[in-house]
Amino acid sequence: MPSTQFPLDIVVIGAGVAGITCAQQLRLAGYSVELVEKSRGMGGRLAKRRLTDASAGATHADHGVCYLKPKDATFARLVQRLCDRGAMAVWTEKIHELGAVVGEVVPPQSRSARYASPQGINALAKAMSKDLTIHYQQRAVALHSQAEGWEIETDQGLSLKAKALVIAVPTPQAIALVEPLADLDDETLAQLKSVNYSKSIAAIAVYDPEHQATAAQLPWQGINCYRHESLAWVGLESSKQLNPQQPVVVVHSNMAFGEAQFEAEDRQAVGQSLLEMAAKATGEAWLAQPEILQVHRWGYAFPQTPLSEPYVEAKTNLPLWFAGDWCGGDRVESAFLSGLALANQINQQLKGEALPELFWQVLN
Questions:
Q1: CA 340 centroid distance within chain
Q2: 286 lies in the same domain as 208
Q3: 201 - beta bridge partners?
Q4: CATH number (domain holding residue 39)
Q5: pLDDT value at position 55?
Q6: What string of pLDDT tens digits covers the 364 residues of the chain?
Q7: Positive or negative, the Cα torsion across 315, 316, 320, 323?
Q8: Degrees (nearest 5) of the Cα angle 69, 73, 78?
Q9: Within a domain: residue 1?
Q10: Cα 103 to Cα 105: distance, rounded to the nearest angstrom
């Protein structure tokens, strides 16, 4: 079984925004840090999907997080730094809503900047993960508490050893890992179990280039579907890209539809039904006629009952912390602030001093 030859200072399970932010801060502070990630890429719900290859005119879609809308000053500075580098830009200042009449789309009463990336929303995660060691497609399946520290085993036979452990994944996945631990305290487990998630289904659609002129004339780039019984979001993804050649649209279901259809055997039929509902709701019949349709299920779309704390520290014999967007909120910004706060706390405990914002070094 492959393994590290020496114990690391810290292993982070989960290469979403919280895990990457925490790991990057600690790496730049001089700690030896590695991450374990079950997926092929980093970023969690900052997810980009390639839909066509270059020979067909490459296009992609953000099928998780739709855009960024910073509120915290540090997160706003981060997004602005990425804009200065050309990695992100203001996508739109107007998010429309469905009207009271079927087929009616109404503009918002106020405006505020929403940010996206022409290269895909995971541009933020890519920038923040520079020089980090991430073990992809390695699902952590077992934790062992030993005298010298933690041993983390994955489903692919990787074994990492570390003095301290950070778990930055949705709470159901975290619970499955830590519940077997003999010394895990009841209070920590109760905190993790108190966080509930909504499910969502995303229909990702590419259309014939003949519809591009129509798409370019639409008055909206994104629509919040508060009034709809099944839809949550309709987004014109191709409007984020430079010189798009064909329309790309992502439709997200709401929680009720996601719960009802999550286990449906025919995912394509579920995705097609979302497009048909979007076509009817917006009055754009062509939305029901995709050239390419892909469907993604989000089992942990949004934490419905997030904690107020930015991180959770377990009362175990060895150092163990939890972080994520479910700590202090339910958005990407929450995940970033969670990772930042946890890195500072870890350094306070291990070295007795506050940790400055070191992550700016990788953005210079």
A1: 16
A2: yes
A3: 297
A4: 3.50.50.60
A5: 47
A6: 444 556 999 999 999 999 999 999 999 999 999 999 999 999 999 999 998 765 456 799 999 999 999 999 999 999 999 999 999 999 999 999 999 999 999 999 989 999 999 999 999 999 999 999 999 999 999 999 988 899 999 999 999 999 999 999 999 999 999 999 999 999 999 999 999 999 999 999 999 999 999 999 999 999 999 999 999 999 999 999 999 999 999 999 999 999 999 999 999 999 999 999 999 999 999 999 999 999 999 999 999 999 999 999 999 999 999 999 999 988 999 999 999 999 999 999 999 999 999 999 999 8
A7: negative
A8: 70
A9: no
A10: 7
Label the pairing between strands 292-303 and 140-146. Answer: unpaired
Q: Look at residue 3 and tell me if it is in a domain.
A: no
Beta strands in 217-271 (DSSP E): 222-224, 231-236, 248-253
* CATH number of the domain where residue 64 is located: 3.90.660.10
Regarding whether 130 and 38 lie in a shared domain, the answer is: yes
Radius of gyration of the chain (CA): 21
DSSP summary character for residue 240:
G
Distance CA 291, CA 207 (A): 5
Number of independent structural domains in the chain: 2
Structural domain contains residue 13? yes
Here the tokens at position 80 are: 């602005």
Q: Which residues have CB under 8 Å from 175's CB, separation 6+?
A: 189, 192, 193
Give domain status of residue 2, yes or no. no
- Domain containing 164 equals 8-43+126-194+305-363
What tokens does 276 get?
């048909």
Burial profile 59-85: b = 16 or more Cβ within 10 angstroms, e = fewer: bbbbbbbbbbbbeeeebbebbeebeee
- Whats the size of the chain, residue-wise? 364
CA dist., res. 59 & res. 238, Å (int): 8
Whether the Cβ atoms of residue 32 and residue 10 lie closer than 8 Å to each other: yes
Q: Which two tokens stand for residue 339?
A: 């990772």
169 SS3 class: coil
CA-CA distance, 138 to 20, in Å (whole number)? 16
